[in-house]
Amino acid sequence: MTAIPQAEALAQAYDGITAVVDGLDDAGLQRPTRCRGWLVADLLLHVLGDAQRALVTLASPASGPADSDDVSYWRDFPADGADAAQHAWWVRRSAAAFDRPTGIVRLWTETAPAAVRAGASADPEGYVSTQGHVLRVPDFLATLTTEAVVHHLDLTPDLPDAPPPGPLAVRVAVATMDGLLSDDTVRPTAWDDHDFLLKATGRLPLTDRDRLELGESAGWFPLLG
């Protein structure tokens, strides 16, 4: 399989989120998302934190070798993480500190392109350290893309005219979920890529038919939260 240009995929993922939120008014930014308790503005602030972390991480090279790749990195973030509720509360309070929700959009549109440029300029043979792990630069970029694509889908259930995430970015996220599954798992035939991502992350429940087709692999779901 042709290697995925990870910096290009991240650019597509972040541009996709910008396309969803840019132009929304304060009311639009207060619509619900798939993340329980979070409005669009809250979730955007959460993703903004990833872009800010990317700027710090990419400016702080680490010595190799890597101890995680773009798939194994996620095994430290189980779907039922005990800190999830605490983080969700922190994000909501932080988002509420802005005078208007559109202030978060402005900060996102300044920060996300900078993170993409930093990713494109980073040494693809280099290593970075983030959240207690050392990763190759392309693998780190892939983790950012995967999270951005999943959260892009989280942003849109109450925004029916929102554009979908770009195909290259989706390809990265799907590859991550495939990697978290056992090698002999076959995806149910009725799933498209978006279905797979939403079910793999617990956004949509498995149906009885899904469980029948997945067999024992159904017990792996959700693969991450």
From TrEMBL:
InterPro entries per the UniProt record, alphabetical:
DinB/YfiT-like, MDMPI_metal-binding
**Could you tell me which residue ranges the Mycothiol-dependent maleylpyruvate isomerase metal-binding domain spans?**
11-155
Q: Where does the signal sequence lie?
A: none
The answer to whether UniProt assigns keyword Isomerase to this entry is yes
Q: Keywords on this record?
A: Isomerase
Please give one Pfam family short name.
MDMPI_N
Q: Name one GO molecular function term.
A: metal ion binding
Supply the name of the protein: Maleylpyruvate isomerase N-terminal domain-containing protein
